[in-house]
Design brief:
With 155 residues, this protein is an alpha+beta fold. 28% of the residues lie in helices and 46% in strands. It has a four-stranded antiparallel beta sheet with strand order 1-2-7-6. A three-stranded antiparallel beta sheet has the order 3-5-4, with helices on one face. A hairpin with a 3-residue loop joins β6 and β7. It is globular. The chain starts with a helix and ends with a strand. The N terminus is likely disordered.
Amino acid sequence: MNNKNHLKKNTQKRFEFFDVTADIGFWAYGKTLNEVFENAALAMFDVITDVKKVDKNDSKAIYVESEDLMSLLYDFLEELLIIHEVDLMLFSNFDVNIIKEKYNCSEIFKLNAVINGENINWNKHDRRSEVKAITFHMMEILCDDICKARVILDL
């Protein structure tokens, strides 16, 4: 199977996990960069709990700004993890909008997102793994016919 067919096949998936010693990694897929970031967030929360059991009762708006796309993905997932830990919430829906702007002689990436979820209730939600941190190790974002991002989480 050539690489393009492999990539097209993966657009049917929102994300998939791969083995990493002591951590967990995933590839997030999407037709657009926004969709890849949404699916990366969904994959991270699927590590924490079964996202199908997380209602979308509460919403929060978040804003992240970074110097490149990998930093933006890292900062976005880190912000979600902080909100999860501080507000004791789980999320299952993400509406992301990324824009690239020129700033002086460089570019800056800005992400606005509305995230939906609910307060943690371990009687309702499955307790899976605790995500301690996002890592830059092997992080990659590729866009061609589709977009995909590789992320490794520290458990």
